[in-house]
């Protein structure tokens, strides 16, 4: 039984945006960028136990020109950042990005000069996936949430208006150095905390 059996007169009214969104959602090809341990969980997502093929996404493209989704899995070093951006620029439009894991999203435990403190410094991120590392089920849930966004992806003048609004919001956002600290390290004297003195760290973003 197909959709033609459910329509009273064989006529279906919809919008071009809705049809395009359904097509894009069902034909998304990932261009993976596995950089650390999160990549192992991403690979497991393609195994039979989790079966990412149910979404038509089993083909992880080896070339960015045949992909429209980048899964940044793991920490992004300053040396790798230009390469990540180059691969993103070579991907087909429209394209989306999932930041997989806390290291890709915020630098994670690597709060130092060598690691980019969030891949959104170099790429526009659509879905942030927490965890260290996130399980394959979490990645599948992030993909489902991304599909919801893609289904309502605007086209034409609507798309230009959405891009302009996003750019305006980014310009109005507070600079990173003026934002609240992501975490605070403290000094523990003898008898406090774990009972052992520890060196006080500092937030490099503050």
Task: Give an account of the 3D structure.
With about 210 residues, the chain is α/β, with parallel strands linked by helices. It is built from 6 helices and 4 strands, in the order αβαβαβαβαα. The chain has a 4-stranded parallel sheet with strand order 1-2-3-4.
Any descriptors?
206 residues; 4-stranded parallel beta sheet; 6 helices; 4 strands; 32% helix; disordered C terminus
Task: Describe the structure concisely for a colleague.
The protein is of the alpha/beta class and 206 residues long. The chain has helices at 16-25, 38-45, 81-90, 102-106, 136-151, 156-172; strands spanning 30-34, 69-73, 96-100, 127-129.
Silhouette: globular
Would you count the extended β strands for me? Answer: 4
How many separate helices?
A: 6
Give a quick account of the main beta sheet: strands, pairing sense, barrel closure.
4 strands, parallel
Going across the biggest sheet, name each strand in turn. Answer: 1-2-3-4
Task: Specify the structural class.
Answer: alpha/beta
SSE order, one letter for each helix or strand? HEHEHEHEHH
Question: What proportion of the residues is helical, as a percent range?
Answer: 25-40%
Distance N to C terminus: 61 Å
Which segments are poorly predicted (pLDDT under 50) over 5 or more consecutive residues? Answer: 185-193, 195-206
Give the oligomer, counting copies of the same chain as homo and different chains as hetero: single chain
Percent in strands: 5-15%
Rounded mean pLDDT is: 76
Tell me the Rg in angstroms: 21 Å
């Amino acid at each position: 039984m197909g959709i033609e059996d459910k329509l009273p007169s064989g006529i279906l009214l919809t919008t071009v945006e809705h049809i395009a969104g359904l097509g894009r959602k069902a034909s998304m090809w990932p261009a993976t960028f596995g950089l650390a341990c999160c990549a192992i969980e991403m690979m497991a997502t393609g195994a039979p136990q989790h079966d990412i093929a149910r979404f038509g996404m089993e083909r992880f493209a080896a070339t960015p020109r045949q992909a429209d989704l980048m899964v940044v899995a793991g920490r992004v070093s300053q040396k790798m950042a230009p390469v990540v951006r180059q691969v993103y620029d070579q991907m087909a439009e429209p394209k989306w990005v999932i930041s997989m894991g806390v290291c890709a999203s915020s630098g994670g435990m690597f709060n130092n000069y060598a690691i980019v403190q969030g891949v959104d410094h170099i790429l526009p991120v659509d879905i942030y996936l927490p965890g260290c590392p996130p399980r394959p089920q979490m990645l599948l849930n992030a993909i489902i949430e991304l599909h919801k966004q893609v289904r309502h992806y605007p086209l034409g003048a609507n798309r230009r208006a959405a891009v302009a609004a996003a750019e305006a919001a980014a310009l109005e956002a507070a600079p990173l150095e003026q934002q609240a600290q992501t975490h605070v390290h403290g000094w523990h004297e003898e008898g406090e905390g774990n009972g052992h003195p520890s060196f006080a760290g500092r937030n490099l973003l503050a």
